[in-house]
Design brief:
Keywords: ATP-binding, Helicase, Hydrolase, Nucleotide-binding, Signal. By secondary structure, this protein is an alpha/beta fold. It is 37% helix and 16% strand.
Length: 491
């Protein structure tokens, strides 16, 4: 049975300097929260703490910028101890978000070695895994870590799927075959062979010749069809010791539809039950229209402090349009999002040639080199250096004085990599082309106007089809859109 915890609240407000204690949180963790600037829990954090702390499978659903990361980090860290080893594995769809989560967790733990970042699996050996309390990474990198240090990654109490609808798009969860559903039994030989792509042929009775092992082939087909995040969860579930409590699953996103919850239910029940657990949510200032659920998007949340603008013109003049928009709005901390499939390094080069000398790719600002194969990317900096660099970058956005002193760059990233990215002072997001889906627009635009602050999302569109799509987004989200025609501009 699906349980819904609804926290009635007004619009989210900015944090103020108070000494209110986080209820139920140990004193050392409260001190580190206050030191990091988190002096009071947000609504979603208050609602989620008792549910996650007692080990319940949970889906966190709240608008962008509402504090979902701390909503699962605080209860998970409250019940863990240094002697417990790795107590939580956090799965992120992108390197950028993984670095951010690891940096946040590092602020809340006493030792830097308590947090491990798995986007460079070659650096994570069994000796590195011993003594850590939180492991954060992308799905493919985590799978490589598990294969390389199988005996060291045992017994986490919880797995977190951050941006679950991107890790497990609706309709992609594959039920497990019977040999993979048991959490207490180690994987059999046929499964290990299938996972390595080495399913051997066996003689079939009555045929007089070799034939493929049907069990191994069936498992191999299932493995190929599954998302890497699902394989991470199944690997951890199978590696748990006999008699250990069930693995807790925490999922979160600002766009959680009924189909996503059904997919999470398959994972929670090991392919049998379809109960996603407890859904914890905070009431938005403006509830989403019902027609979102009819289109399969479902319960999209946008902050009420977010303004929306559309600049329409010629595609060849897109950089001129961007120049006009920046000169008109004068943002202090801008972010540019390009459509999936576009080249971020190429876009940065074009921007610099057009006079945007401060343009820099987000992964470069975090110390990660661009790569052709996302999860296997190698970075210039070590994981430790990436977390430190990310924290320094986040601190430069935190206050108005720091933003003026730091001369913030124009960060450039893609729709996929921008999911979950949180810089407190971002005041304007430019979309160089409109996303195909309304939930992608929500996540891109939601990088600003976070935690009650004001922000603006500016979409640069270049066709009638994009203009019609923006009208659809406007009706579906119930937002007001300011339209500016720049079709007279030439490149």
């Amino acid at each position: 049975m699906l349980t819904l915890c609804w926290l009635a609240s007004t619009a989210l407000r900015p944090r103020v300097a108070v000494t209110t204690r986080w209820p139920g949180v140990p004193d050392p963790l409260v001190e580190r929260l206050h030191t990091a600037g988190y002096t009071r829990p947000m609504p979603i954090q208050r609602a989620a703490f008792p549910v996650i702390a007692n080990g319940t499978n949970t889906v966190l659903h709240a608008e962008t910028g509402s504090g979902k990361t701390l909503a699962y980090l605080v209860p998970l860290l409250s019940r863990s101890a240094p002697a417990d080893g790795i107590s939580a594995v956090i799965v992120s769809p992108s390197q950028e978000l993984a670095i951010q989560i690891a940096a946040e967790a590092r602020l809340l733990l006493p030792e830097p070695s308590d947090v491990l970042l798995a986007i460079q699996p070659v650096d994570l050996r069994p000796s590195c895994l011993s003594g850590a309390r939180v492991l954060v990474g992308t799905p493919r990198a985590l799978l490589q870590v598990f294969r390389g240090a199988r005996g060291a990654v045992l017994g986490p109490d919880a797995v977190v799927l951050d941006e679950v609808d991107l890790l497990l798009p609706p309709g992609t969860v594959q039920p497990s075959p019977p040999t993979m559903q048991s959490s207490a039994r180690a994987p059999g030989r046929a499964h290990r062979m299938a996972a390595r792509g080495k399913a051997r042929a066996r003689p079939t009775r009555g045929r007089g010749g070799p034939a493929a092992n049907p069990t191994a082939l069936a498992i191999e087909r299932r493995l190929r069809a599954k998302r890497p995040a699902q394989l991470v969860l199944e690997w951890l579930r199978r590696s748990r010791p006999r008699g250990a409590p069930k693995l807790q699953l925490v999922s979160c996103s600002a766009t959680v539809c009924a189909e996503t919850r059904r997919g999470v239910g398959w994972l929670v029940g090991g392919g049998g039950k379809r109960d996603a657990g407890v859904v914890v949510t905070a009431a938005p200032a403006h509830p989403p229209p019902r027609n979102l659920a009819q289109r399969g998007v479902g319960n999209v949340r946008l902050p009420s402090t977010l303004s929306h603008s559309v600049y329409s013109g010629r595609a060849a003049a897109r950089l001129v349009m961007l120049r006009v928009a920046t000169e008109e709005l004068m943002p202090e901390a801008p972010l540019l999002v390009i459509p999936n499939g576009g080249s971020v390094p190429r876009c940065v080069d074009e921007l610099r040639k057009a006079g945007f000398l401060s343009a820099v790719a987000l992964n470069q600002a975090l110390g990660v080199l661009p790569a052709d194969e996302g999860d296997a990317a190698q970075g210039e900096a070590s994981p430790e250096g990436m977390m430190q660099q990310r924290q320094l970058l986040a601190d430069s956005y935190r206050s108005e004085a720091s933003r003026r002193q730091a001369e913030l760059p124009l960060l450039v990233t893609s729709e996929h990599a921008v999911r979950g990215v949180d810089f407190k002072g971002l005041d304007c997001v430019f979309l160089l082309g409109l996303p195909q889906r309304v939930d992608s627009y929500v996540h891109a635009a939601g990088r600003t106007a976070r935690e009650g602050r004001r922000g603006r999302a500016v979409s640069l569109i270049f066709s009638e089809e994009e203009a019609q799509r923006m009208d659809d987004f406007r009706r579906e989200l119930g937002i007001k859109v300011e339209k500016i025609d720049l079709s007279f501009l030439r490149p």
